[in-house]
Amino acid sequence: MITGAGGVLGGSIARSFAMARAKVVVLDIRQESIDNRVAELKALGGEAIGLHCNILEMGSMQQAVDLIVSQVDGGFSAFSGV
Length: 82
What we know:
globular; 3-stranded parallel β-sheet; single chain; 82 residues; disordered C terminus; 48% helix; alpha/beta
């Protein structure tokens, strides 16, 4: 789970994890940035999903964490449709 993954620093971290074949959860406040980063990571051969999240709002972060914890356990296939 990488917050701000749509930006420069977060994107660099996300790419490093994707190239290491980690499952990456991209969190950002900008949906277009999320979509672009997920596509980039998949093109690198990584496995990634994206979630809209505002880390300045505790409820938004908690919602993202709860979703990840409840559904990623078996892999990203549980996120189809998100």
